[in-house]
Amino acid sequence: MTDQAKHWSEAAEGYEEAFIDPYLPDVRNPLRPALTALAAKTKTAADLGCGIGPLLPFLAEQFGRVVAVDFAEGMLARARERCRGLTNIEFQPGELTDLTQLADRVDVAVAVNSLVLPDTGALDAALSAVHATLRPGGHFLGIVPAIDAVHYFTMLLLDRAKRAGMPDSKARQNAAHHAEHEYYDFAFGDFRYQGLQQHFWQPFEVRYRLRRAGFHRIRLSKVHLSWQQFGCARDLGDEPPPWDWYFHAER
Ligand SMILES: C[S@@+](CC[C@H](N)C(=O)[O-])C[C@H]1O[C@@H](n2cnc3c(N)ncnc32)[C@H](O)[C@@H]1O
């Protein structure tokens, strides 16, 4: 198991407490309606980086066959448990950079917050691998964590600190503390926390990398997250919440 697979595996047990949830009721997430519009019992969907499997029961209901891929055994164990009794899901332990076993066999590929490979060469390899899984006319939908949303949250926190009367340098320290800047490298979009290294995306990067991997008709929109999942929500909740980036692309 790679170092990152081991860390992701360890993160499985407390997953709900540690990670942002794009499926909360107050999150405007276009993913499920878009999947419903593409679904058919004759089609195969692949959940790439399925984690503990929050999307799998929905995919199993909508599609004839579902393949669930993840490199972290701890995640797959929880996903299998969640999907006990669902007979049309096949679990495949594996790396997103090597999806050769799925080549040309997938109609709809999904990746929710799993395109976070810290090495951009590996990230590009994963996108090319996803492209190669798709049959002609296939679709690729997903969500990626947004680095620009961290800038936005920082702006709101800075203004809050200034409204409270802090001088500029103190207000910056306050914003950096609450937005947890110590875990980020903003120039490169790195987020490092508890051994996990994740890539956070700029919107222009989503279009750029998907296009280079061969995708067309790339559409992007914000998934506004739940303020509940951010500290300081009480003071900032009149503003729109931070977001992740949703994309829909075609082979
Ligand atoms: C933040 S979780 C998201 C899980 C799930 N898609 C969800 O929406 O809850 C990221 C998942 O991607 C998996 N992952 C990250 N990098 C991967 C890689 N290179 N190959 C396979 N799985 C990977 C992790 O193990 C983890 O389960």
Provide an overview of this structure:
The strands form 2 sheets. The chain has a 7-stranded mixed sheet with strand order 3-2-1-4-5-10-9, sandwiched between helices. It has a 3-stranded antiparallel sheet with strand order 6-7-8. With 251 residues, the protein is α/β, with parallel strands linked by helices. The mean pLDDT is 96. Helix 6 links the parallel strand 4 (106-112) and strand 5 (134-145). It is globular, with a radius of gyration of 19 Å. The protein has a single domain, classed as Rossmann fold. It has helices at residues 3-11, 15-18, 31-38, 56-62, 73-82, 120-133, 147-163, 168-178, 203-212, 233-236, and strands at 44-48, 65-70, 89-93, 106-112, 134-145, 184-185, 190-193, 196-199, 216-224, 243-250. Residues 8, 19, 49-51, 54, 70-72, 75, 95-96, 112-114, 116-117 line the site of S-adenosylmethionine (SAM).
Helices and strands, in order, run as HHHEHEHEEHEHHEEEHEHE
How many β-strand runs? 10
The gyration radius over C-alpha positions equals: 19 Å
CATH superfamily: Vaccinia Virus protein VP39
The CATH topology turns out to be: Rossmann fold
Percent of residues in helices comes to 25-40%
What number is the mean pLDDT? 96
Q: Quickly name the level 1 CATH class.
A: Alpha Beta
Count of separate structural domains: 1
Largest sheet: 7 strands, mixed
CATH architectural designation: 3-Layer(aba) Sandwich
Order of strands, widest sheet? 3-2-1-4-5-10-9
- Report the end-to-end length measured between terminal Cα atoms: 31 Å
List keywords for this structure.
Rossmann fold, 251 residues, globular, alpha/beta, 37% helix, 7-stranded mixed β-sheet, 3-stranded antiparallel β-sheet, binds S-adenosylmethionine
